[in-house]
Amino acid sequence: MRLASPTGGRLQWLAGLYHANESVDGGFYSDFSEAKGLGFYMSTTYGQKVQTTGVFGNVDYKLTDRLTLLAGLRYEDESRDLNDFKTAVLAPVPRVNATTSKSQHMGEWSGKVGLEYTFSDDILTYANVSRGVKSGGFTTYNSGLPEQLDPFKFEELIAYETGIKSSFFDRKLQLNASAYYYDYRDQQLQGVLYTQTGRVGRMINVPKSHIQGAELELRWRPLNNLTITQSVGYKYGEYDEFFFVNATATEAAKDPVTGEYNTIVYSDRAGERLPFPKWDYKGSVAYDWQIGGWGVEAESNYAYRDEKFSTSSNSIIASYWLVNANLTLRPANANYAVGLYVNNLTDSYSEESRNRFISASTGSPNPPRTWGVRVSYRY
């Protein structure tokens, strides 16, 4: 439910209330806690329920004709339950490995305060500080080991951001830039957990960490039927307080005969880089024209992602480029269009993520070259 003020005044406000109930029954025929489990017919089942209630409000107030104050506040109450989690061997000898039920609660405030200053109709600058929270949860894709099923906590972020939004040449050129600093408490990351016979993934909390970065976006129409977009982003982050498993040292201490991890090595990870790419770049070029009674648009878009470190696989995922192309035909005054598309035009191999559990290593590659026909209809 939302209530909003009339438009056009110096003060604009919005207030609301929401409530949500969610439930899911999950499961899979595996148990990753022990290597020998891969030779058995396993079953893992569980249920989750989430109940959330929130209230929120937002205010925009024009202090002057050019300066606007923005403020918002939200309170969220969330209960999350993990019910009847069970891992069992179905065959050849049935047995129950573990059963448990857990719950956690979050009651947190979030909000934002900022200023916007309009230099002209084409240039706006802003600065704001905000606090956000991200729900915690349970790592349900592994086994019933207590260390794996302990809930990970909610994530807290204090974000500082400033930037500019501008347009030039009768708005044919738009240029936006921003810089930010993110101060995290209990940041959620994909981590690892070692058992005696293997390693599995689990969600963890980093006590203190930070990210800093900047983004630049450009949209240019040098001709009425030609549109060029470009954006580039840079970010860098570090652990500020983090004592956790040292996967490299633990792997080095693995018994070469039995394959068991006799020594789980922990170390102070403060000062290490957070596992995400430093650079990312995106762009597109689109050109449209008329042929007889048909409108034609040719568009190509491309993206680059820098290399990043995978915590769960303890390896570096290489950087990559992806290039896509589209051709769309639309009859004049018609409400339908037909298009051809090719994704991953160069048919290059690249991975979005990697994982490792026990002796198995997995990757999540981007699709290979894919082409097809697309039909759209508006009514």
Distance between the termini: 29 Å
* Global geometry: globular
Number of strands: 21
Mean pLDDT: 89
Total helices: the number is 2
Task: Estimate the strand proportion.
Answer: over 45%
Compile the SSE list and pairings:
Elements: E1 2-4, E2 11-28, E3 41-62, E4 67-91, E5 95-120, E6 123-134, H1 146-149, E7 155-168, E8 173-194, E9 199-223, E10 226-241, E11 243-245, H2 247-252, E12 266-268, E13 279-291, E14 294-305, E15 308-310, E16 315-317, E17 320-331, E18 336-343, E19 351-357, E20 360-365, E21 370-377
Name the descriptors:
21 strands; globular; 379 residues; mainly beta
Summarize the structure.
With 379 residues, the chain is mainly β. It has helices at 146-149, 247-252; strands at 2-4, 11-28, 41-62, 67-91, 95-120, 123-134, 155-168, 173-194, 199-223, 226-241, 243-245, 266-268, 279-291, 294-305, 308-310, 315-317, 320-331, 336-343, 351-357, 360-365, 370-377.
Overview of this protein structure:
- The chain has 379 residues and is mainly beta.
- Helices cover 3% and strands 69% of the residues.
- The strands form 4 sheets. The chain has a 15-stranded antiparallel β-sheet with strand order 1-2-3-4-5-6-7-8-9-10-13-14-17-18-21. The chain has a two-stranded antiparallel sheet with strand order 11-12.
- Strand 3 and strand 4 form a beta hairpin.
- The longest helix has 6 residues.
- The model has no long low-confidence stretch (mean pLDDT 89).
